[in-house]
Amino acid sequence: MARPTSPQGTLLYAQSGGVTAVINTTAAAVIAEARSRKVKVLAARNGILGALADDLFDTSVLTPAQVRMLAHTPGGAFGSCRVKLKSLEEDRARYEQLLETFRRHDVRWFLYNGGNDSADTALKVSQLAQEYGYPVTCIGVPKTVDNDLAVTDCCPGFGSAAKYTAVSVRECALDVAAMAKTSTKVFVYEAMGRHAGWLAAAAGLAGRGEDEAPHIILFPERAYDEATFLARVKQVVERVGWCVVVASEGIRDADGRFIADAGAAKDAFGHTQLGGVAAHLAGRVQQELGLKVHWTLPDYLQRSARHIASQTDFEQARAVGRKAVQYALKGLNATMPVIRRTADSPYRWKIMPAPLSSIANAEKKMPAEFIRADGYGITDAARRYLQPLIRGEAYPPYARDGLPKYLDLHF
Questions:
Q1: Is the same domain home to 296 and 165?
Q2: 120 and 253: one domain?
């Protein structure tokens, strides 16, 4: 009986943008799926930078046990970057440099694991390759804790960050409640979310009733008014005895100015560099209301908390990795595997192909029906959407020293 022949060519995988608790789950799925089809996988070091510099890692050296360990390791095992290539005209030299790397290693499939900016890069690479007649299939692989990718129902990485947020807010609320009589009256928690309030909304899962934390959620989708906010804090403290506030980092005033604008600094993607909205709000509460306030900026903690990853998120991160390889080998160029929700209860979903042109540079914000009429909480519709995404625990294995066992590739 004839043995199946291996497809000719190499698959190049790269990670982009802010990493997540489960981006390596996707990476492990890509490697495992490609191996099952006898396809060699190279991983670019530090995202697109590695592809430009021909700094590639041959994943063939990883043992099956290491690939399994990779699946429950947070961060980006191969390195990520915040580098956005410009248009084909402005950055043609670098795009051509990418094609040279592809030719040198016979790369026929390029998988770029990132958000909407990364989808744009993958789309442009596919367009240039077609222009030059180079046979490569480009696939965007979804990832972001912000949950702001268009078309897909949710994004791998979001569910685990959402779970961390809801759990942390519930636990902190119990602490604040215990001390409120003689100590802290207001606690402010800052969640990631530049233009979309998905992570802040996830905090709403921590409580249900009017007097349960979080008592106030501030969304980028609603203009921030300081006087109204301070009045609401005062009311909650008078009624409950304490108040927990969750604020998206990207809340703005009525004129569209970020409340926590760190100045004119921009990151590599051209986004305004934000800083310390929780500190700002806490300062205003203390100054205007005279209440003792504590605040926290979880920052990287919320996106790296693999120790309490969502099982749903883990399964979806693995599924998009597998499908990305399958779509690539089928030649579905300029495509992304996205998540399609088919039922809320019981929760059901499937993976479908979507064109990168519908995803690149687009942004999905919180629907109006997910934000409570007063603008300070989530609705039942939001709960129905969010709850399944944080369900289940995908714990990593633990070592005898009490710490999780994570993979370190030691490049």
A1: yes
A2: no
Q: What is the pLDDT of residues 109-147, one digit of tens each?
A: 999 999 999 999 999 999 999 999 999 999 999 999 999
DSSP code per residue over 187-235:
EEEEE--SS--HHHHHHGGG--STTSSPSEEE-TTS---HHHHHHHHHH
- Looking at the structure, do residues 74 and 14 belong to the same domain, yes or no? yes
pLDDT in tens, 145-187: 999 999 999 999 999 999 999 999 999 999 999 999 999 999 9
Catalytic residue, candidates 117, 146, 153, 313: 146
Annotated active-site residue 146? The verdict is yes
Axis-axis angle for helices 277-289, 226-240 (nearest 10)? 70
Contacts for 67 with CB less than 8 Å, ≥ 6 apart: 28, 31, 32, 59
Q: Are residues 205 and 172 in the same domain?
A: yes
Q: Is residue 182 part of a domain?
A: yes
Same domain, 294 and 310: no
CA 168 centroid distance within chain = 18
Confidence category of residue 4, pLDDT binned at 50, 70, 90: very low
| Torsion angle (degrees, nearest 10) of CA 181, 210, 208, 251 | -90
Q: Residue 326 maps to which CATH number? A: 3.40.50.450
The number of beta carbons lying within 10 Å of the beta carbon of residue 348 is 11
- How far, in Å, CA of 367 to CA of 357, rounded? 22
For residue 106, the one-letter residue type is D
In contact, 144 and 157? CB cutoff 8 Å: yes
Structural domain containing residue 226: 158-304
